[in-house]
Amino acid sequence: MTKDIRVRFAPSPTGSLHIGGARTALFNWLFARHHGGSLILRIDDTDLARSTEESTRGILSALRWLGLDWDEGPDAGGSYGPYFQSQRLELYTKIAQELVDQGRAYYCYCTPEELAERRKQAMAEGKAPRYDGRCRELTSQERIQKENEGHRPAIRLRIPDAGETVVQDFFRGDVVFANDVLDDFIIIKSNGMPTYNFACVVDDAKMQISHILRAEEHLSNTPRQILIYQALGYPLPIFAHVPMILAPDRSKLSKRHGATSVEEFRDMGYLPEALINYLALLGWSPEGEEEILSLPELVRQFTLERVGKTAAVYDVKKLTWMNGHYLNERDLDDVIELVMPYFQEKNLIPQQLNDEEMAYFRQVVDAVRTRVKTLAEVADASEYFYIDDFSYDEKGVRKHFRKENSVEYLKKAAEKLAALQNFDLETTERAYRELSEELGVKAGKIIHPTRLALSGRTMGPGLFDIMVILGKDKTLQRLDRAVQYIENLT
């Protein structure tokens, strides 16, 4: 590979950045960075009815959040702009007209209704519903007559009636398509807009794209694109179609399988480094068995040779596990900043915290983050540090509060804690160990109902961490509240 490598990511701004699109962007980015090449970001927005500025902003924001930059494109500039297809329409029209002048393309005046009727008839006769080429050899007089009748022509590419078009795919080798099933396809619609395949080829060629690394679903477009390259006399890039991402049930990934866009994962409290790490492993294998890989390490290792040839299966559980790892490894100050909006959304903390409130907040976050997997879960798992009138977990009540002697244990625990001069991790834990020996029971018999009394939950940070963060007074108040609750159960 040389430094002349130029790859592109060309999303259509008709919605959010999907997981599949994010992986395509990442693979292109890693490939470019590994080989010292360039990544071009192009916005394929010729579908004017569905493309929106909001989607464009969302895609750019999602890419930046993931930590992916681009060497040319919106906000970066470059020598091959503009980088919005909607701003390149004159170029497409000019090149299409050149093809017409050379006899490689022609005007087609067939209306959508006529084409639909012919497709219907062909299918009824058991034939492939392909364009019959009736506008191929129209005379100038016939064309003038059509235009006088108000017909606005599309432009079709004239392709060979026989033979084959071979796609040389990096992963699959030669994939052969018969020309007689491709027919003379449209490159400029009757409204003057280019078709996807035509605009894509023109831009990829003009932007000197060397490798087209994209999703497998685009493989069916590639023979038509190759025919356009050949008609224009452009050199072919290297095509590499990455296998699909499938849902756990091996069906096509969709919203019914949960979050599928980068924005959704961001809002749910996933970290960009976790999502990047996970996406890289969807269809690509690292050198060793280690799966936690930093972005620089991914760049170092990434090659197309290590991309698999079979579909990757999406597993949100693995992503969540990976996110928990990164959440625990992140600098606490970073986590504090990232998690604050989730606490504020739940009205647990004010918009501005004073020094005392911030110190308490830091303790809470540091204790909780090692037990959860996402930023949103940090806030969810911290509610009892800010709310006193929480409810008790029903299963926990049956298991710990309804047991014989639970009230006695909590009262004895409260007496022990009330007598402490220091209220830190060491003294609180020692008090519980002493109480366990005095009562002749395992420490868990006291610890479990105490945890439920202080938090309403059966899981969470260490019990003595919870006590120290809450402080002596609040700990005793909650033990007393739990005693009253249990006594009212009977």
Mean pLDDT: 94
The CATH architecture assignment of the largest domain turns out to be 3-Layer(aba) Sandwich
The level of helicity is: 40-55%
Q: Count of DSSP helices?
A: 20
What number of structural domains do the residues give?
A: 4
CATH class of the largest domain: Alpha Beta
Distance between the termini: 77 Å
CATH H-tier superfamily of the largest domain = HUPs
Give the amount of beta strand, in percent: 5-15%
Secondary structure category:
mainly alpha
Radius of gyration, taken over Cα atoms and rounded to an integer in Å: 32 Å
CATH topology of the largest domain: Rossmann fold
Anisotropy-based shape: elongated
User: Quick one: how many beta strands?
Assistant: 11
Strand order of the largest sheet: 3-4-7
Task: Tell me the major beta sheet.
Answer: 3 strands, antiparallel
